[in-house]
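Dear H.,

Thanks for agreeing to be a second pair of eyes. The structure we're designing against is below in token form, covering all 134 positions.
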């Protein structure tokens, strides 16, 4: 049995959030929301779409952010979410490989660990022009 996603039509969403349907259409044209379409081409909004709309309305109504600002903020939120997921994957990797990593690190002496850092630091100083070194 396939789980059916609950959806809302544009008229229901407009009433629910007290916005004109044309405003929702404009948000869609601007790429701020992306409702799916039925076979009859009716816009269908999911709960996820409504959450995004709530953010848009909060930014515009409560904070006075214009649509260009809303687009920037939404893009930054998406990038932050992606970074958060990447950090979580990285920390999960570290947690699952902690024993392997610590045994590798334990086998390296302090002086050996510092050698690559000093080589990099010297290379950076050499590459700088005399003006950059001041």
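And this is the sequence the design step returned. I haven't edited it by hand at all.
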């Amino acid at each position: 049995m396939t789980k059916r996603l609950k959806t809302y039509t544009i008229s229901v969403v407009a009433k629910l959030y007290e916005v004109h349907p044309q405003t929702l259409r404009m948000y869609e044209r601007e790429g701020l929301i992306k409702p799916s379409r039925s076979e009859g081409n009716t816009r269908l909004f999911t709960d996820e779409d409504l959450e995004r709309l709530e953010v848009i309305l909060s930014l515009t109504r409560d904070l006075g952010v214009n649509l260009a600002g809303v687009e920037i903020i939404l893009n930054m939120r998406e990038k932050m979410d992606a970074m958060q997921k990447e950090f979580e994957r990285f920390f999960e990797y570290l947690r699952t490989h902690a024993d392997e990593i610590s045994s590798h690190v334990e086998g390296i002496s302090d002086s050996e660990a510092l050698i690559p850092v000093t080589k990099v630091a010297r290379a950076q100083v050499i590459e700088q022009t005399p003006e950059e070194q001041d």
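Two observations from my side: Residues 67-96 form the longest helix (30 residues). Strands lie at 7-9, 36-37, 43-46.

Warmly,
E.
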